[in-house]
Amino acid sequence: MAEGGLNQESVPKDGTQSDSHLLECPICLEQLHQPRCLPCHHSLCQECLSTYITSEVSGNRDTAATFTCPVCRTLTHPIDKTEDKDKWAEQFPVDKVATEMIQMKSGSTESHYCMFCEKAKDKKVLAHFWCKHTQCLFCESCKLNYHDIIHTNCDGIDIRTSAGTLPPRTGTLIKKCDKHNKKMHYFCVDHNSFGCSKCITVGHRKCNDVATTEDYCSTLDRNSTLKETTTYLREATDSLESAVKSFQQYLQSITDDKESALQSIDDMEERFIQQMKEMKKEITDDLIAKYKVESDNLKATSQKCERLKIAMQNTVESTATARQQNDHMGTILLYQRGHKELDAWKDIVKEMRMTSSIASLKHEAAFDRTSLNFGKIVVQKQQRPFTDVPSLTKPLSECELKEVRKVNIKMKSERSDCIARGVVITPDGSIVVGDDRNQKLKLFNTDGDVVDELKVNGIPYDLCLVDNTTVAAAIGNGVHVVTVTSSKLTISNVINIGKTCYGIMYRNEEFFVSTGGNEVHRVTKDGKTQMLHRGTNHTYTLSQDHRTGTLFIPYYNPTAGSTAIGSLSTDNLHKDVLKVNVVKAAYGVDVDGEGNVYVCGHGTHNVVQMSGDGTNVRELLTEADGIEQPEAISVYGDKLVLTRLGPDCNSIRLFQFI
């Protein structure tokens, strides 16, 4: 870990802004010690990074081959994943720039040698003087015989009387090429890498965009790209500051709730001291457990925002310092780091919007002469006001789709082709697919590789998210609740309702399923059902607007003018949203975080995006895009995944909004 903070003041005597925050480890918040640089350009102490990696991949992730950066959450691969995880940190390169800056700032007592003797005589002679004009070191002999003859008025420094320290350099800290030992003055945009003149000549002759670091920085200035990024970082920092304050207020609120509930419990304890001791312990434990769950969630999100906020502030300040000092390489690295931090910020915003409810704890007391008890602890959820944040991207209603990859979902051991009736993207980017013919649930990672299969007893139809690590599937005559980790699918609960289930959706501790083809039922966790709506045609999938709770119901109807999409409000009022026209035989449906509704036109071979009231409808994908009989759809953040029944039904397609 880091060994003490810097002793320098935050602002040097020459008036330039200190860059000491560049040398702080984001984990221990002290000066970097043996700094290791991750691919996202964030540097951490080697020991801190090793401890973090070991913790990150522990427990259920013992077989994990990746970890996330503790600052920007970028997925990071070790250079050699076969090594022990406590050795992964050593695989990443030493941050030589940070090491050199630390040595300069801490007044390193390492020996300095006369530059003239090294070059002219190939000898290592201890230097005694530093020339400010030439930025060179001289021994006493070379100073008298060479330096003083040419630079008669030069203001030199005797480093023997200055505690062996040299003045800090204000120019660019340029790393030397490890392969050719030449300074890396060039930057290849195509490969996103630095290089010396020999690297560029040999390895980047065919690249389209190669420039000197100075020219590339000038391009960033001319295009205002660096300025815009800095502006976004400042705005994002302000937003995160507001979010952190809100979380602190929420934490204080439920802490007050806890104290109030405990007081209520204590008041009642006085009335039933002898008879109610065991009941008091039971309900107190329940309160503390629920408080811990909610407070831990708030603390974790708050700490995540705080850490990213500090990193963004440091990036903004460091960028200003780098530009002031003409540090072109540093400017580029900070520019790239800033974009990684902005991506992390957008992910946090999406996460907070998806979990936009806040809990409060209440003790509901109960007193009855025939049944003495302490009542119960109730966790109440309500909509959390979320501060508007500056948008870095267009609304999804204005974006187009770009195909990222096709994922083969048929396993080598399977004889039957697949029919993917249901699909869902999890918050960490994994994809869960329900395979009708092979009666399996399949888990794919972000690279499109299958990591687990789960054989089920029945045909899996629609899937939905319950929370960040739980998926529910409509299978056979019931609901299967499945726990999802990075490498495992596990059934945690089965709710039998005695009717064939097709579509499924989860809201407020209850499931909503379409059964019998055209009925929509509410299903409690103990299996009790209540019919809410009966349609005129089959409904195979369900989805909801998480902001309003409105349920969207697609109808597999081919008749022009009939209802294609309906909605069901939280008070069970049904409304026709879209008629059969641009969409025929609607099958899959999903809703994004902005309230846009996505519908698979099984009979029209297209995918449309529409507003929640159906007034704005546009085709996102058509037959011209290779869409044929689209089946299931899932949208999360800026990702969209699609299955189909037509040719090539053994693959699913992943798209990204741009």
What is the makeup of the main sheet? 4 strands, antiparallel
Compute the average pLDDT: 84
Number of distinct helices: 10
Instruction: Order the strands across the largest sheet as they lie in space.
Output: 13-36-35-34
Q: Please give the domain count.
A: 3
CATH topology of the largest domain: Methylamine Dehydrogenase, Chain H
Identify the CATH architecture of the largest domain.
7 Propeller
Uncertain stretches of 5 or more adjacent residues: 3-18
Distance between the termini: 41 Å
What is the general shape? globular
> How many extended strands?
36
Structural class: alpha+beta
Helical percentage: 25-40%
Q: CATH superfamily of the largest domain, called what? A: YVTN repeat-like/Quinoprotein amine dehydrogenase
Percent range for β-strand residues = 25-35%
Structural Rg = 31 Å
Query: CATH class of the largest domain, anyone?
Result: Mainly Beta
